[in-house]
Design brief:
Largest sheet: 5 strands, antiparallel
Number of helices: 3
Structural class: alpha+beta
Helix content: 25-40%
CATH topology of the largest domain: Ribosomal Protein S8, Chain: A, domain 1
CATH architecture of the largest domain: 2-Layer Sandwich
Distance between the termini: 28 Å
Order of helices and strands: HEHEEEEEEEEHE
Radius of gyration: 15 Å
């Protein structure tokens, strides 16, 4: 049983990119799908798709590469089940001077740190990706 589904998803994506796999599949959840779509919008993933029927839905994520090297360099899970990390609108971090993204779970949904700053929202800091 997985206690941290988002952390598990992020590590599976990182391991697949380091192993130079084309895609990775995992059980589907709305939260995983939303986080994967945000990473795709940042250009770090090629495709995100939901497969299967209700009891056994799968989320297939295609990794993006530049030549032979993966576009995704590294990531860090910030808020964990044992230690939640919350930030207000003034303390949203910039990742690598704006080259990376941070993903927040806010009252308006899951979004990047830039979007949250524009709206003026804080929330739970899920992860940083570059």
């Amino acid at each position: 049983m997985v206690n941290d589904p988002i952390g598990d998803m992020l590590i599976q994506i990182k391991n697949a990119s380091m192993a130079r796999l084309k895609s990775v599949s995992m059980p589907y959840s709305k939260m995983r799908h939303e986080v994967a779509l945000i990473i795709k919008q940042a250009g770090l993933l090629t495709d995100v798709e939901k497969l299967g029927e209700i009891p056994k839905e799968q989320l297939r994520i295609a990794i993006s590469y530049k030549g032979r090297n993966p576009v995704l360099t590294d990531l860090r899970r910030k808020s964990k089940p044992g230690l939640r990390v919350y930030v207000n609108k003034h303390n949203i971090p910039t990742v690598l001077g704006g080259m990376g993204i941070c993903i927040l779970s806010t009252s308006k949904g899951i979004m990047t740190g830039r979007e949250a700053k524009k709206i003026g929202l804080g929330g739970e800091l899920l992860c940083e990706i570059w």
